[in-house]
Amino acid sequence: MSRLSDADLELLLLIRHFELELLELFSRGELNGTTHTCLGQEYIPVAVSGLLREEDFVFGNHRSHGHYLARHRDPHGLLAEIMGREGAICDGVGGSQHIHRAGYLSTGVQGQSLPIAAGTALHLRRTSPGALACAYIGDGTWGEGAVYEALNLAALWRLPLLVVVENNGIAQSTPTTRHLAGTIAGRAAAFGIRHIGVDSLDVSEIRDALAPEIDLVRSGAPLVVEFATHRLGPHSKGDDTRSPQEIQNARSHDWYARYAQDHPEQFEQLDRSQREYVQQVVADVSGRPLSRWADR
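The structure corresponding to this sequence follows.
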């Protein structure tokens, strides 16, 4: 893997250690509800965020801790939101999945984000030329009809819409091969929308490939970017139906171990510093009083 800037590697490691700490907090019964981690997929929002501008709007999904941290780099606010503590992004009522902040919105409802992203793209085209709406979805989301309504309008109205598909090969507990006929590329082609497949884990390589394509999105050529990726953990908690061989295959594609091997000196220093930073965040937020709902 190519050597990253310290800032990019720190962001990758921030997301990794943040989610590992979430799992630890969950195991101790200190989190309410459930949580969906993006372990193994962190490089996607880190790569994409480097190509986005402040005026762009990002839409996340149920597995969006990485999307949010790549957009706002705010582990204190996100953890406070998940734990319902003072300083929470949405006063603790949104939790892990439903977060709203300037230029960012996530929802756990599959497919819901794309029609909203298409409408936002139309708004941005009228009010902020050159800005785009970026929506992260999974392979399972292609089973929702709202996706196709949004793609139809995006193509028809030439909206600045970037759809980032994190195809990890399994929708909750159902393999993609058992719920999706045809291909995602074929679905994009049906609407005359460009499609790019990405199988690299290398953040720099991904950015080099996507930069000119995303520039075209800003001028009104919507784009679907499909990442072939691997989810290390279960869908949420204890619902992993994959075989040991499939889980091992996912682990063999983890960027974390590969980067550690290729750049040990840089990795070890920043891995330690980000792990300690996240532990400090956990100690700080855990000691705060419960958040209180405020009228907005």
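DSSP finds eleven helices and nine strands in the chain.
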